[in-house]
Amino acid sequence: MSKISSNTKSNRLTLKNCVCNRKYKLAIKKATKNYLLSVKNDNKGDLHICLINLSLVYQKIDKAVKRRVLHKNTAARKKSRLAKIIKQ
């Protein structure tokens, strides 16, 4: 434990941010999993459901970038990879 007050405050802030960041990252993971399941179970019959799920994942990723949980380039890379899956 640090004796310097600024360090203890920094540690408290880090723990608080860790909890908040985890919330956004878990939301992205859940939305991505739902999207991948919809693509896998789709059989090219209902593309509309896949696009809705993709849109939800995009929303979660953009929200995380806005809250500075993810870097904008990381978000772009994730979105690109998800879009590539639906094109195949």
Q: Which helices and strands appear, and what pairs or packs with what?
A:
Elements: H1 5-40, H2 47-66, H3 72-87
Keywords: Chloroplast, Plastid, Ribonucleoprotein, Ribosomal protein, RNA-binding, rRNA-binding
Protein name: Small ribosomal subunit protein bS20c
Subcellular location: Plastid, Chloroplast
How would you describe the shape? elongated
Largest sheet at a glance?
none
**How many individual domains?**
1
* Total beta strands: 0
Helix content: over 70%
Structural class: mainly alpha
How far apart lie the N and C ends?
A: 53 Å
Question: Count of helical segments?
Answer: 3
Return the string of H and E elements. HHH
Alpha carbon gyration radius: 17 Å
- β-strand percent reads under 5%
Low-confidence stretches: none
Mean pLDDT: 91
Pfam families: Ribosomal_S20p (PF01649)
Function: Binds directly to 16S ribosomal RNA.
GO molecular function, one term: structural constituent of ribosome
Protein name: Small ribosomal subunit protein bS20c
Could you characterize what this model shows?
- The termini are far apart.
- The chain has 88 residues and is mostly helical.
- The chain has one domain (24-87).
- The protein is elongated.
- The model has no long low-confidence stretch (mean pLDDT 91).
- Helices cover 82% and strands 0% of the residues.
- It comes from Sonderella linearis.
- It is found in: Plastid, Chloroplast.
- Its main location: plastid.
